[in-house]
Amino acid sequence: VSDPLEVLACLRDGRAPAAGAVRAFVEALVDGRLGDAHAGAFLMGVCARGLEANAVVELTRAMLASGDTLTFDDQGGPLVDKHSTGGIGDKASLPLAPALAACGARVPMVSGRGLGHTGGTLDKLESIPGFDVNLDAEGYRRCLRGAGFAIGAQTAELVPADKRLYALRDATGLVASIPLIASSILSKKLAEGIGALVLDVKFGSGAFLPDARLGRELAEAMVRTAEAAGVRTVARMTAMDRPLGRAVGHALEVREAWACLQGAGPADLRELVEVLGAELLVASGLAEDLAVGRGRIAATLDDGRAAERFLQGVEQQGGAARALEGGLELAPDVDEWCASRAGRFVCLDARAVGSAVAALGGGRTVGGAGLDLGVGAEFLEPVGAEVVAGQPLVRLRHRGGRGLALARERLAAGLDADPDGVLPGPLIGERIALGTATGTPPAAEG
Ligand code: URA
Questions:
Q1: Active site residue: 23, 61, 66, 84, which one?
Q2: Phi and psi (nearest 5°) for 337?
Q3: Looking at the whole model, is its pTM more than 0.85?
């Protein structure tokens, strides 16, 4: 197909575009023959009509080809990465990257910033004084040669087509489309030059796509697309109907990640790091099966190797490792949110917990003030615990009461002590890999 406008006619009429049509369109967009009006029509068309699997692969590849890819000669191990669709308190990347590096993998992790009610990995790392997320291609290479992992921002040269399309989607309310999300995320992951990818697809009230069925559809589209592009990919559906771990808020989450790196910290965070890490060790040939992979990741958390890698990685990105060991600075003021009655501590809406922290200054508002990295919420009891009336359940870290009343209101809408409350479901759900169209139960994982 040589006519770049052919795909717009197909979308308008509800016909499947011929092979090459999507590529021709994206190429014309990138080289300036087509403009934002065409891009807007395309995005609306895809949102409304969807896109067939092979066209999603074509879209992803064409977006990838709009910029550079990271190249690593002799990086010393298989290149792997994980992507999470985002949730409340999700700091799993922080222990996972150095744990994988300690197991022999190399992790060029291009990450994002927080959006809406969720925090971003880059923002969290910036709570470590001096930490610089702006790596260029040579910076990524240098970090991989050193600590074996790098966590940084998307460079200007990586997938410029996504930057442009994402800005248009954002401005026109066209973000929530599975083909557009899958191609956006995967074009950036493919640009890292990785050979294996694990996707942590969240479902539940705190997830970007709360409905597990939609999350699953996204997971399947992403697995299919990434595999077609030559990357071994597995998706795990994981519960985000409550926050991950006990800490929500940037510096608090880095502290919790640091505890995990020392073999301590909450059990759910540890479980997620082990399971996602095991998938990547198996996919990249560094472990024979998931049980062995889990054991290897666990060992690096328990014997200090992952912590050592993390400190090395922080230092090579300019961060003050000493600040981490001494405890990162938190907002000075403390308030407690207590159970109004006896019962089981339940999370009715995880998003409300993220929104509460955002109210304290820990979230990005459109055109708003900078992030306060020291505010947040610490769960004093795990969701599911039996509690008594008046028992403190959440400690809020705030700065001079800013946003506190609103944060308390939001917590009250999202959390409760309920005499009839039930235990939360398992954290780790379905495993979606190529050829498991309906997903399969996880293999034995020890
Ligand atoms: N994250 C991305 O990078 N792209 C999307 O479309 C959605 C989430």
A1: 84
A2: -115, 125
A3: yes
